[in-house]
Structures are given as structure tokens and as C-alpha cells.
Amino acid sequence: MILEMKVPSPGESITEVEIAEWLVEDGDYVEKDQAIAEVDSDKATLELPAEASGTITLKAEVGDAVEVGAVVCLIDTGAAKPEGASSDADKASADSAKKEEVKEEVKAEKEPQASQTKETYATGAASPAAKKILAEKGIDASSISGTGRDGRITKSDAMNAKPSMGSPVTGGNRGEKRSKLSMLRRKVAERLVSAKNETAMLTTFNEVDMSAIFELRNQYKEDFKLRHGVSLGFMSFFTRAVVRALEMYPAVNSMIDGKEMISYDFCDISIAVSGPKGLMVPVIRNAENLSFRGIEAEVKRLAIRAREGEITVDEMTGGTFTITNGGVFGSMLSTPIINPPQSAILGMHNIVERPVARDGAIAIAPIMYVALSYDHRIIDGKESVGFLVAVKEALENPVELLMDNDVKRALEM
């Protein structure tokens, strides 16, 4: 029996996917539920499992864009599993040997061929006329390859010769590699360009003294991890500070739809995560209802799923505000690009000890620069600056503004 394997729908509104990689070869015997391909949609990369055991016939190639529901391969379920099929180790060994053979062939091809040019006393010597011209130009005859008989430098060679501007650098690798962008990467690019071109994007900056959060984490992080199994990171403080600020400035938790403005009474916070296939933005649903423990647990769960390529389209859809942390890569300051159709994004950066003024004296404190990029069509300067100041206030006074003056209860200790 021949089974037609069709592209399943990876999510609502997705009509086609791209074959990113075949994990099997045409004619291989596959087991049921074995991953046979990776497919890219414009939102995620997903594995395609075999629907039955049998011999596979591929009907699409890597890089092909195929519609949802289209047949990408056939599986002959009546085929018997071949006996003595080579193991993965044998295949790896064979592949390694093949690569070595290719290397040897390439090396042999690159071996310099013996020169067929006959060399005599005239090779490299300049004719009297050529010698005069080279002297006038200040060119050494040894730097010229003659085209005359037996390599003699002719008058024409001398007239065409140009003074050297210095010895060229040689021996460096000047190769290049061209590869096709994945559907996910292309979609990210389109969305970023769209955000720059179709929104009135503006960025406002501020700085946050992280001393209070450092003290809380140093005091409670070990007990927090022992009790809840997750670390007490910065993301829970920032998420709760953002939720508080969104409630104070609801326009920041809104977006434009044509000629209408949609405002939300819930806070679905998108968090930017670097995955193996590029940037992914999973969503923490109803962050306003989550405790510090709940936020940290959800951040850990989503980050792991994104980095292992298991994140689903539904988990990346529908955020109302985004937080991105370039500080984990060492960024001091940046202007993050809005994640459409959202209207604002908060950028976190690295924490560096800097001199600050306190009560008329200079002190050293852990400072983070923060940036809020927003769509000026829907968010005014007063609201954007007020929002970022509210975030700063909450982060610098977390016990009062985020924990209601009861740290142990807030951390569920």
C-alpha cells in the first residue's frame, strides 16, 4: 500500500511551508513516527514525522515551498525492512571516509603543475628599449613577466607595466559561501522592515539603578531555587514592572488595526529568545496574574522549548507587548524594533557598575540602560516617557511597588 504524506497545517493563517532539510534519503526505510524532515513556516521550524513504516520516496526537494496539504513524499507500507541495513555508526564511518577521499582529491587537484615554460638566459631580461622605459617608470624588471620569446621583456610589456603600490597581501582565505535564507528568517526580515517603514517608531531611554534587585536576589535566590526549582532572575522583576506600567498607561498596551485602536485589558508579554533557527518570541499569557515564581517558571519553559526547536506557532502568537534582553550578549544600549502589530517594545541591556550621585556624594552602583521603542501614531511622548519612568521606579523600589512590602509572600517563601 502506498501512503501519501501531506504537509500538515502548522497553525492558523499559514498556507505554505518550506522544506528546510530532509533527514532521510530517497529509498530509505523509515519507522513510524521517525522524524523525516524539518519544515520552515514563517513562524517556526517543525519536524515532520513519518506516518507509517516503509520505504520512502521523496516528492519535494530542500528549499521547495509547498502548500499545506500538498504531498511531499510517499511511503510504501508493504515494503519489508531490509536485513543487514547499515547502522548509523557504519553510515557515519562511510561518510567520514568519503569526506577524506574528497579532501584528498581536492588536494591533488590543487597540487601545482610542473611549469612547461622553457627558461633560458633571456627569461626576465629586458630589451634595451624596455629597460629605458622601466627605468623612467621606476619599475624593477624582476617584477614584470615578459611575453617575448623565452620570457623576454619587450617594449610593449614595459609600456603596459604599472608601478606597484606596495606588495599585495597573499595567502589569506578569500572564499565565500552563499546560502538561502529560511522561510522563518525571511519572514522576520519582512516584519522588521515593515515595522520600520509602516510605523512612526521612536525610542526613549532611561537608566535603572539595579541595587535593590541585586540585594533581593542575593538574599533570596538560593532559597527561591530550592523551593521552586527555578532561578530568581531579572525577567520576573521586569515583567511585573512592565505589567504595572501597562496598567498605568493602557495606550502602550494597544495596537492599531486600520482606523481603529484596539486596547487590551490583559498583558500577554512576548519575550525575545535566541533559538537555533534565529530569533523567536514566545508569549507569557496573562502575565498580570502570575507571581514571581510563575513568571520565572514560564520563562524557563518557553526558553527551553525555543532553543530545542519545539516551540509551536500558538506559543508565539498574540503578544501585546515585548521585552528583549540584549544584555545577555553584552549590549550596552540599543534601539529595539517594534514587534508588529504591537505598539511598543522594552529593551534591557547589560548591567555595569557606574558612578552615580547619591545625597550629594559619588557612589558606585550597578546600572542598566533601558530603551522603549514605540509607535508614535498611537502612543504620545508623555505616555511613553511616563511608562518608562514607571518601569524605572518599580525596579528601583521593588519591595514597595512590586511586592506590596511583603517580600516573603511575594516570593512565596
Description:
The chain is α+β, with helices and mostly antiparallel strands and 413 residues long. It has 10 helices and 19 strands. Helix 6 (234-248) packs across helix 7 (292-307) and helix 6 crosses helix 8 (381-396). The chain starts with a strand and ends with a helix.
In percent terms, what proportion of residues is strand? 15-25%
Question: How many strand units?
Answer: 19
Backbone CA Rg: 32 Å
Q: State the CATH class of the domain at 198-410.
A: Alpha Beta
Chain-averaged pLDDT: 84
Strand and helix order: EEEEEEEEHHHHEHHEEEEEEHEEEEHHH
The CATH superfamily of the domain at 198-410 appears as Chloramphenicol acetyltransferase-like domain
CATH architecture designation of the domain at 198-410: 2-Layer Sandwich
Q: Which residues form runs of ≥5 with pLDDT under 50?
A: 106-117
Oligomer: single chain
Outline the biggest β-sheet: 7 strands, mixed
User: So how many helices?
Assistant: 10
The shape, in one word, is: extended
N-end to C-end Cα span? 60 Å
CATH topology category name of the domain at 198-410: Chloramphenicol Acetyltransferase
**Helix amount:** 25-40%
Structural class: alpha+beta
Q: Which descriptors would you attach to this protein?
A:
19 strands, OB fold (Dihydrolipoamide Acetyltransferase, E2P), alpha+beta, 7-stranded mixed sheet, 413 residues, 4-stranded antiparallel sheet, Chloramphenicol Acetyltransferase
